[in-house]
Amino acid sequence: MSSLTAHLHNIRELLPTNSELHCTLLNEGFSNQVYLLSWDDAGQLVLRISDIDTEVFYINRKEEMRILTCASNSKLSPNLVWSDELGNFACEFLPQPTLSWEVCHQESALQRLAGMLRSIHQLPKGHHEYLVLSVIRHYLDQVSAKLNGNVNLQQEYNYLLSCFKLLKQPKKLLPYVLCHNDLNPKNVLMDDEELQVIDWEYAGVGDPLYDLSVIAKSHNLNERQIEAFVHFYSPHLNAEEVMEVIAMYSRCYSLREMVWMLLKHIVTPEDTDNLQEYYRFKSSSNLNPFH
Question: Structure pTM?
Answer without folding.
Answer: 0.95
